[in-house]
Amino acid sequence: MVFTSLFSLEMLLKMLALGLFGYIKNPYNSFDSIIVIISVWEIVGEAQGGLSVLRTFRLLRVLKLVRFLPALRRQLVVLMKTMDNVATFCMLLMLFIFIFRYLKVSFASFIHI
Question: Does the pLDDT of residue 61 top 80, yes or no?
């Protein structure tokens, strides 16, 4: 609730400083306003079960920092390349598991016959 109130205050101050159309021109501001509105909506509707799934969108605010921090951008690029290699490895591992499972089933049925 503390961060939601701080982000709401930031959104309101930016709207006052830039004006509504100046605020909307920047896509990062539009994205931040959507996240703030969803967060406020979640807090208000918390008594009715909440919208906890929408909390993951708050993490996307980190993408805003990538523009200002080149070291963070470099780390994210390395992470994305690593995830690509890990995904390839996992698919290869699943292929081996499938093949050996199929060989085990067919060999077991061959022995019982």
Answer: no
